[in-house]
């Protein structure tokens, strides 16, 4: 009783250790306040190159003991192809996140262009600009948006992430005055501060708006200024919206929808990769098993040839056979030894292949490279195959296979993507408009030209009051249209896109048609492999009996060494044919399961375990003492 409890505890501890083996590979988002979190880089963990503890747990005295389920579990945890495929759904999720941000980003602000700028009508430079004259300082328009943006026309999606921009410029400008009539000074010294804040937002409908606040502060050495220093703020909102090309949620959200489909498809592709890896493990595992069976047959053949060669030499010493008969026996011994060496070489190659599938370092891991494989499961052919009707198997394959579902999803993705090129054929037309309110206030200054209007005397509060009372409003609305003559580029893009979509549909249909052919072929292959195996078993039994009978005749002096050697060769060939037929049947069974989409179900594999790289089930091997 205590022994059973001890073994149970060991198994539970082993399972818990295996469960906690893998570090995550998902990017780690920074832990920071929301306001700065979007501007901190995501930490992507390094690749996992260490094998899971299961590999070491299955080692016993320099040998790696494996059942089929152990081999599959090791592959799910350590196979590099599966590990590479684990990143694809994560990448697809980030692609979706990127597409949800929309199209082109805002342009880069240029602070240098705002140096020394003043509002229209503000100060000397502003007055000159308002009068249509040019001066030494820069002039800005308070109704402009804060920064230039990349124009988005046609089916390019708007920038869906809100964008807050701020630019502050401080400048000191000294300008010689060729005509000092207004400044009453040969040199104009201006100190400016420009504050610019804007909020931009795009929509999936195909439009967007910009809310902008600008403040120009000016202090200059001009005797003729009625207001000095002065502030000229402005608050504006502008919008633009596509009316033909780029209009509608369907066309602007197509990239998002395509990436949503791609996210689902990435799971299907991952499942396909897992199936491929499991199939490779099964084929490699049973290839080693069949090579071991072949090696045993070759060793038995060498032992029989050695005994027969020794017996022939003994009979030569007695004068019962000639020297030629001894040469024949030795030739057969050399042939069987050569076959043994070749079988050992093939077994070694297959073991290396299997080891590479079960470890991330493969034979570069010293302990694994030197380990001897002990495979505990043999190839067993059931009494009957019990295959359902062909139509049911085809239906099962079409329903279960992830590659078929992925092909169908690709057609859907192509159809969604084609919305863009269809919409791109339309002319470009946009509705544009805006509303702005300006203000102006400053410190009153007595000049030869008189005194300022009391309405504009004050500080920034006075100017902001003018804005919100809409004392100086500006309103604008308009439309932009562009019609390409012939429109050949858009028509060609749309035509090519549709033609490629038709090719995809035909290729998918060809794949669906091929499913029935593949299922039928593998069913035939399985039945042929069974018939070949049953025939090979009978031939091996008969050849074994003939060989033993020929040996008895030789002992009685009724046969020759040549006849014995010939029967031994036939028996060796029959043994090899039986092993080959056994391996062929197993390969056909694995291929049929893969074609029907049964591989994961038959081998008790879940996608959750494959994604996490953690297999909960413990090995059937008892823990090491």
Summarize the structure.
The chain has 16 helices and ten strands. The protein is of the alpha+beta class. Helix 3 packs across helix 7, helix 7 packs antiparallel against helix 8 and helix 8 packs parallel to helix 14.
Describe the structure.
The protein has 625 residues and is an alpha+beta fold. The chain has two domains: 58-95 and 257-298 and 348-412 and 496-612, Outer membrane efflux proteins (OEP), CATH 1.20.1600.10; 114-252 and 428-482, no CATH class. Helices cover 52% and strands 15% of the residues. Strands 3, 4, 5, 6, 8, 9 and 10 form a seven-stranded antiparallel β-sheet that branches. A three-stranded mixed β-sheet has the order 1-2-7. A hairpin with a 2-residue loop joins strand 1 and strand 2 (63-66). Helix 7 (254-318) packs antiparallel against helix 8. The protein is elongated. The two termini are 17 Å apart.
Total discrete domains: 2
- Under CATH, the topology of the largest domain can be stated as Outer membrane efflux proteins (OEP)
Let me know the largest β-sheet: 7 strands, antiparallel
Estimated structural class: alpha+beta
Arithmetic mean of pLDDT: 84
| Overall shape | elongated
Instruction: Tell me the span between the first and last alpha carbons.
Output: 17 Å
Instruction: Summarize the helix and strand pattern as letters.
Output: HHEEHHHEEEEHHHHEHHEEHEHHHH
| Rg from alpha-carbon coordinates | 42 Å
């Amino acid at each position: 009783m205590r022994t059973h409890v001890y073994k149970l505890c060991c198994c539970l501890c082993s399972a818990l250790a295996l469960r906690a083996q893998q570090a995550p590979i998902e990017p780690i988002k920074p832990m920071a306040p929301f306001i700065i979190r979007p501007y901190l880089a995501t930490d992507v963990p390094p690749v996992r190159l260490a094998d899971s503890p299961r590999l070491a747990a299955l080692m016993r005295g320099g040998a790696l003991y494996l059942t089929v389920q152990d081999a599959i579990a090791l592959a799910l945890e350590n196979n590099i192809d599966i590990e590479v495929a684990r990143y694809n759904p994560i990448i697809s999720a980030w692609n979706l996140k990127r597409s949800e941000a929309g199209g082109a980003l805002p342009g880069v602000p240029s602070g240098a262009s705002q140096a020394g700028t003043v509002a229209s009508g503000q100060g000397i430079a502003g007055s000159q600009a308002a009068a249509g004259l040019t001066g030494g300082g820069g002039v800005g328009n308070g109704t402009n948006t804060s920064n230039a943006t990349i124009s988005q026309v046609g089916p390019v999606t708007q920038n869906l992430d809100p964008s807050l921009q701020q630019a502050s410029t401080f400048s000191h400008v000294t300008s010689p005055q060729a005509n000092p009539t207004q400044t009453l000074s040969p040199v104009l010294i201006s100190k400016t501060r420009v504050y610019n804040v804007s909020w931009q937002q795009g929509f999936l409908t195909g439009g967007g708006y910009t809310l902008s606040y600008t403040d120009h502060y000016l202090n200059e050495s001009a005797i003729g200024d009625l207001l000095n220093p002065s502030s000229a703020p402005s608050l504006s909102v502008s919008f633009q919206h596509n009316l033909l090309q780029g209009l509608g949620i369907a066309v602007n959200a197509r990239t998002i929808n395509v990436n949503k489909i791609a996210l689902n498809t990435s799971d299907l592709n991952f499942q396909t990769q897992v199936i491929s890896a499991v199939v490779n493990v099964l084929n490699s595992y049973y290839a080693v098993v069949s090579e071991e069976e072949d090696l045993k047959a070759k060793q038995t053949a060498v032992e029989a040839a050695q005994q027969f060669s020794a017996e022939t030499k003994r009979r030569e010493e007695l004068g019962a056979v000639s020297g030629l008969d001894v040469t024949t026996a030795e030739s057969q011994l050399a042939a069987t030894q050569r076959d043994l060496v070749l079988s050992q070489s093939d077994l070694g190659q297959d073991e290396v292949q299997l080891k590479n599938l079960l470890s991330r370092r493969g034979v570069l891991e010293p302990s694994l490279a030197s380990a001897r494989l002990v495979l505990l499961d043999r190839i067993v052919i059931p009494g009957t195959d019990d295959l359902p009707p062909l139509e049911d198997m085809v239906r099962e394959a079409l329903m279960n296979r992830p590659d078929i579902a992925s092909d169908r999803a690709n057609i859907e993705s192509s159809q969604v993507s084609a919305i863009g090129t269809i919409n791109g054929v339309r002319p470009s037309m946009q509705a544009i408009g805006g509303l702005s309110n300006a203000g102006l206030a400053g410190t009153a200054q007595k000049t030869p030209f008189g005194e300022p209007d009391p309405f504009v005397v004050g500080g920034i509060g006075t100017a902001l009051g003018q804005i919100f009372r809409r004392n100086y409003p500006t309103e604008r609305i308009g439309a932009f249209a562009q019609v390409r003559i012939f429109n050949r580029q858009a028509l060609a893009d749309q035509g090519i896109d549709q033609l490629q979509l038709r090719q995809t549909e035909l290729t998918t249909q060809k794949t669906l048609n091929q499913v029935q052919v593949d299922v039928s072929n593998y069913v035939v292959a399985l039945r042929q492999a069974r018939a070949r195996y049953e025939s090979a078993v009978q031939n091996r039994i008969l050849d074994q009996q003939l060989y033993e009978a020929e040996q008895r005749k030789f002992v009685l002096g009724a046969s020759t060494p040549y006849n014995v050697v010939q029967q031994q060769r036939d028996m060796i060939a029959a043994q090899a044919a039986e092993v080959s037929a056994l391996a062929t049947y197993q390969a056909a069974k694995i291929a049929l399961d893969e074609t029907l989409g049964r591989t994961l179900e038959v081998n008790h594999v879940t996608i959750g375990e494959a994604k996490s790289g953690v297999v909960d089930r413990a090995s059937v091997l008892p823990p090491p003492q």
